[in-house]
Specification:
The longest helix is centred in the C-terminal third of the chain and has 20 residues, at 324-343. Helices cover 39% and strands 14% of the residues. The protein has a domain at 159-328: Rossmann fold. With 347 residues, the chain is α/β, with parallel strands linked by helices. It has helices at residues 43-58, 82-93, 114-121, 135-144, 159-172, 177-180, 193-204, 221-234, 266-277, 284-291, 314-317, 324-343; strands spanning 4-6, 19-21, 71-76, 97-102, 127-131, 149-151, 184-188, 208-212, 238-241, 252-255, 299-302. Helix 4 (135-144) links the parallel strand 5 (127-131) and strand 6. The strands form 3 sheets. The protein has a 5-stranded parallel beta sheet with strand order 9-8-7-10-11, covered by helices on one side. A 4-stranded parallel beta sheet has the order 4-3-5-6, sandwiched between helices. The chain is globular and about 55 Å long.
Length: 347
């Protein structure tokens, strides 16, 4: 698989030189490496993670000492429920020590440089999990620290969420990669960080993927280019559209909030987006359209938290076809598998 680069956007608007990331061909190659994006991970490595996650979910007893006496720092600039809890509980269950650092009132780099922060942490902890506003900060942390750095959400990517999402569909496919590739996935809404990692993972795994957004709110062009290449390699279809009618014929419908955490613009931006995105709401009518021509009713997916009544209606998110809480649970199992290969003893 070709080496990938990540072009983060710096806070001053100037893009730093992209960092070249090593290709992860097999799950064992995660040993000692960072997870900043999914673009440099092979389909084989992802499926190996998923198979391990299935085993861990079924019976964790064989993995209880995977992180024995290892410390994992959790640096969070943004609020979190699922990411924070899934990492804290997961690390503890694997025998490790999660250490939470709340940076909601003081951004990384404010008190001391990101480089100095990372160089200090590498002396005490075995892994850094960072939830940040800027991918550039994450890149700088990973460049400085010798221990692995995991992207727990940035303005560009949310790779742990993307893994959990496709793992949930893989689980529903009975752990069968060929059956997973028969799934048709639709993402509708804002082409944001969650969308980026979702479509990275889906196209890598050969899942037919459609993205529908308002004009001007689609995924980043470099991510689209990467996903076109991934889908071409996998022999699957990848389509970006602005037409809601293209939702027809899908097995899973995914959406996210219309305004992401920390997005600039304030009240005016929220009001503007709500007006623009209204016709992209996931409601019963859209679910019916999406299910048309498919063998079973489409399932609904959301990374949560949801703004009920905006991007999704209550009757959809609370329906039996909603798998949002499966996704939430599977955050921990997918991350546990990642930590097993990245830090686990004997790997």
């Amino acid at each position: 698989m070709p080496t990938a680069t990540t072009p983060p956007t710096a806070s001053n608007g100037n893009a730093p030189t992209p960092r070249v990331l090593p290709s992860i061909a097999y799950a064992r190659d995660f040993k000692g490496q960072d997870l900043l994006t999914l673009a440099n991970i092979s389909p084989t490595a992802i499926l190996e993670l998923f198979d391990t996650a299935l085993r861990m979910k079924a019976d964790l007893n064989a993995f209880r000492s995977t992180l024995d006496n290892l410390a994992v720092a959790l640096l969070f600039e943004k609020p979190s429920l699922r990411t924070k809890m899934s990492f804290e509980v997961g690390v503890a269950k694997l025998g490790g020590h999660p250490i939470f650092m709340d940076h909601s009132s003081q951004r990384l780099g404010a008190r001391e440089s990101v480089r100095d922060y990372g160089k200090n942490l590498e002396r005490w902890v075995d892994c850094i999990v960072a939830r940040v506003y800027s991918q550039a900060v994450l890149e700088e942390m990973a460049e400085a620290a010798k221990c692995p750095v995991i992207n727990a959400l940035s303005d560009r990517f949310h790779p742990c969420q993307g893994l959990a999402d496709l793992f949930t569909l893989y689980e529903r496919a009975g752990g069968n990669a060929a059956k997973l590739r028969q799934t048709r996935l639709l993402y509708i809404g804002d082409g944001n960080n969650v969308c980026h990692s979702l479509i990275h993972c889906s196209t890598l795994l050969g899942v037919d993927t459609t993205v529908i957004t308002p004009k001007g709110y689609g995924p980043a062009e470099d991510v689209i280019t990467e996903c076109q290449a991934f889908s071409g390699n996998a022999g699957s279809k990848f389509n970006v559209s602005h037409n809601v009618k293209d939702a027809e014929g899908h097995d899973a419908i995914y959406t996210d909030v219309w305004v992401s955490m920390g997005q600039a613009g304030g009240v005016d931006e929220v009001t503007k987006r709500r007006k623009i995105f209204t016709k992209f709401q996931v409601n019963a009518e859209l679910m019916d359209l999406a299910s048309r021509g498919r063998p079973n009713p489409a399932v609904f997916m959301h990374c949560l938290p949801a703004q009920r009544g905006l991007e999704v209606t209550d009757d959809v998110i609370d329906a039996p076809t909603s798998i949002v809480y499966d996704q939430a649970e599977n955050r921990m199992h997918a991350q546990d598998a990642l930590l097993h290969y990245m830090l686990g003893k004997g790997n």
